[in-house]
Amino acid sequence: MNAILTLFRKRPVLSLAGVNAFLLLVLFIQHNPLNLQFLRSGYSGADVLLNVDEEDVERIEISDPDYVGGRVILERGDELPENLWQQPEGNMAEESWLDSIITRVPAQYNWKLTIVDPNGERQTYSADHERVRTLFDGLNRMRDYFALDRTPEKDRDLGMGLDTRGNYTGLQISFQLEGGRRVENIFVGRSSTRGNQSYVRMNEEDEVFLVEANPRSFVGSGEKEYFRSRNVLPTLNLDAIQGLKAVMPTRDLEVEIARRANEWQMILPLPTIAQKETFEALLGDILNWQATGFPESIPEDLDPDFACELDLQVQSTGQLTGQSNIHVSILGRVGYSDYIIQRNDQLMRINSIYLADLYEPRERLLDAGPMPGGGVPGGIQ
C-alpha cells in the first residue's frame, strides 16, 4: 500500500491514467459492447439454437394453430441495393463510435409472402423485409442454456404435444437451407409474454430449451398478414418529387404544384408560390405512408367528400432519365385522420396527419410572404 501511495505522489498523472484505464477495462468486460464470445457468461454466452441469417435461408414456412389450417410462406428474393440497407452516414455521425459498431444488421433481401388458406388457395404479396429481418434477429436470442429432457407427458405439459393424427399442435417454423437439401424446424410450446420466455425444441431432438424470447412475436402472434409489406409507395426521397396533382371531384377542386428551382410553384387553384415547409411536410407524409390495415371492403362510415385522385411526378435516375407518374386513389376519410386508399387494385387503410392540408390549399399551402414586384400570393387581400 505504501508503495502505491509513493507512486501516486511521484507520478500522479501517470497513476491516474492507469486507474482510469483499469476502470475502463472493468466496464468493458462487464458490458461486453463488442459482443465478444469469450467475455460472455450465462444465457448470453450459450450457443444459438439456430445460427442462420438471411443469406443462408431460401424459404421459411410457418404453421400456426391460429391460421386454422392455413400456412404462411416466405421466399427470399433479390438482394436489396446497398443504399437501402447500409447504415446512413448521417446517422453514423450522430452516434458514438461504439454505438455504430454494435447496431443490428439491417434487412438485406427482398422477400415474397404467400398466404395459403385451408383449401390451398394462395395469395402472394411483397413482404415487409424489416419484419423478416426482425425474425432473424429474434433467432439470435434463442440459446441452448436451460434444457429439459423430453417425455410425452412433458411435451403435453409444455404445449408441445401431438394431435390424434400425429401432427404437432403448436407453432412450427421451418427454414429451408442449402437449396432445399436441409430443413431446420423450430417447434414452439408455451410462452410467457410477461417474462418473455418460451419452450422450444429443434427438429426431433431429445431436449426442450427454455429460451429468453417469444418466437410467436417474431412471426406476428397468429396474424397471417403480419409479414405483408406496409409500404404504400416505392422507396423515394423528397428530391425525386417534381410535382403533385390532385383532383377532388366531390369538391370541384384541383390542386397542382410543381418544383421550380428551390421553390414550389402552385399552378392550381391559384398561380402563386406554395409555402415550402408546409408542402414538403405534406410530401414527406405521403412518401412515408404505411398501411395500418387491409380492409376487404369499403367501410360503411367512409366520408366520400375526401375522395381524391392523387398523382406524383417523379424524376427517374440511372441509365434512363425522365419523369414517371405514381397514382393513388384516395376513396375517402374514416374518422379524424384515417383514409381508405387504393393502389394496384389493393385497398389499404392509412393514417395521415398532413393530408388534410391538400383539401384546403388556399388556407394551408400558400406562402403568405410578399411576391416579387410587391404583390401578395394569389391576390389575397
Verbal overview:
By secondary structure, the chain is α+β, with helices and mostly antiparallel strands. It folds into two domains: 165 residues, no CATH class; 132 residues, Immunoglobulin-like (Sandwich). 23% of the residues lie in helices and 32% in strands. It contains eleven helices and 18 strands. The strands form two sheets. A nine-stranded antiparallel beta sheet has the order 4-3-2-1-6-7-8-9-5, with no helix packed on it. It has a nine-stranded antiparallel beta sheet with strand order 13-12-11-10-15-16-17-18-14, covered by helices on one side. A hairpin with a 2-residue loop joins strand 17 and strand 18. It is globular, with a radius of gyration of 28 Å. It starts with a helix and ends in a 17-residue tail after the last helix. The C terminus is likely disordered.
